């Protein structure tokens, strides 16, 4: 409070009133000031307080004296407050109601609300610092320090403000990310065109390039994914789209299926296909609808649904008898196997391994022991 000086309550030349609020009590630090509830005025140059009953009682403090300010939310029996932290007392300060104070901050306690708008306007003035561009007719003592005008917010109100700022920043980052994604999709299409062009040149100049170089370069192109993925933009929607998609899937899945023993779960297929398609991702529904058309199109792959509901894609040439025989041979050799142990032996997923064991059990070649230790399969000695 010792930063305040007595004032006549009149505005100086070049000084403009920004906002005023009635029902405000001053605090010297944490102690109530020896002044009644009055009105606080914010100008472009000063912070003023005036007694509403006695207009002769008016004090003011230059805004340049403020280091930073913060909010204190209202509580039970407590009004919302703005805490203003101040520079040290200047040497040429005019007399005021307090000659000395043990605090370096004051509080404005708003008994009749209005603190949110006052805080906003004070923040604007501390940012604009108009007192530097249009000095008042009387010199106003100024504090020093690199932190002048810095604001900080605490309490519930401050937390809400920080959350809102964080949300705006997140929205901005998301917008920028989608812009970058759009650019990446355009670039990916350009890369596909480049890969097609290079592949055609390799075909035309087969004699000029060694076989090793050709194989290596084709592997690089293959890693880029499917050159011409079937999309709704190119093949429309509905049955025609799913037919074309099924044909493309039938071609691309043959090699991966042969590497994995002739069968893959639909989840594995989904991941593999979308990885190869790059930016033109498939939805699970489109993939399922396309797989259902394998048989009608007489493609070399089939969609199969096990009794448990697990869906797999398998080669048409995949022999169920061989699959059952393999399960029986491995179980007989080891004495007993769980799905996890069988998966390690064959290099398959646990899901598919379990389905093979269940199929062998269904055909009467295996029997199970389902205990607290888990599901274990044994050769069926009763058969």
TrEMBL record:
Pfam assignment, any one: EAP30
Main location: cytoplasm
Disordered: annotated segments: 130-149
PROSITE patterns for this protein: GLUE
Keyword terms of this UniProt record: Coiled coil, Cytoplasm, Endosome, Protein transport, Transport
Every GLUE N-terminal domain range: 1-138
Subunit text: Component of the endosomal sorting complex required for transport II (ESCRT-II).
Protein name in UniProt: Vacuolar protein-sorting-associated protein 36
Species the sequence originates in: Knipowitschia caucasica
């Amino acid at each position: 409070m010792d930063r305040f000086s007595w004032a006549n309550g009149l505005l100086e030349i070049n000084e403009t009133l920004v906002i005023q609020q009635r029902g405000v009590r001053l605090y010297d630090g944490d102690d109530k000031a020896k002044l009644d509830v009055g009105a606080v005025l914010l100008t472009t140059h000063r912070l003023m307080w005036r007694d509403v009953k006695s207009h002769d009682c008016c004090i003011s403090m230059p805004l340049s004296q403020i280091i930073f300010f913060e909010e204190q939310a209202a509580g039970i029996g407590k009004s919302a407050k703005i805490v203003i932290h101040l520079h040290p007392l200047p040497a040429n300060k005019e007399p005021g109601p307090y000659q000395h104070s043990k605090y370096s901050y004051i509080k404005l306690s708003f008994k009749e609300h209005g603190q949110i708008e006052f805080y906003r306007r004070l923040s604007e003035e501390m940012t604009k610092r108009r007192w530097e561009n249009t000095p008042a007719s009387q010199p106003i003592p100024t504090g020093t320090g690199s932190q002048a005008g810095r604001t900080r917010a605490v309490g519930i109100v401050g937390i809400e403000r920080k959350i809102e700022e964080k949300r705006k920043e997140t929205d901005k980052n998301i917008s920028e990310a989608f812009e970058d994604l759009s650019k990446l999709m355009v670039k990916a299409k350009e890369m596909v065109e480049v890969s097609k062009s290079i592949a055609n040149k390799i075909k035309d100049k087969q004699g000029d390039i060694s076989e090793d170089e050709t194989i290596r370069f084709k592997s690089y192109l293959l890693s880029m994914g499917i050159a011409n993925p079937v999309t709704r933009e190119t093949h429309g929607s509905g049955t025609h789209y799913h037919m074309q998609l099924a044909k493309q899937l039938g071609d691309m899945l043959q090699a991966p299926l042969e590497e994995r023993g002739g069968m893959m779960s639909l989840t594995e297929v989904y991941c593999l296909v979308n990885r190869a398609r790059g930016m033109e991702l498939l939805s699970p529904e489109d993939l399922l609808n396309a797989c259902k058309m394998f048989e009608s199109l007489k493609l070399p792959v089939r969609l199969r649904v096990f009794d448990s509901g697990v869906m797999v894609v398998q080669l048409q040439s995949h022999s169920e008898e061989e699959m059952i025989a393999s399960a029986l041979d491995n179980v007989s050799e080891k004495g007993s196997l769980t799905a996890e142990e069988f998966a390690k032996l064959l290099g398959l997923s646990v899901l598919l391994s379990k389905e093979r064991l269940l199929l062998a059990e269904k055909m009467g070649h295996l029997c199970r022991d389902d205990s607290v230790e888990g599901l274990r399969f044994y050769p069926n000695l009763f058969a």
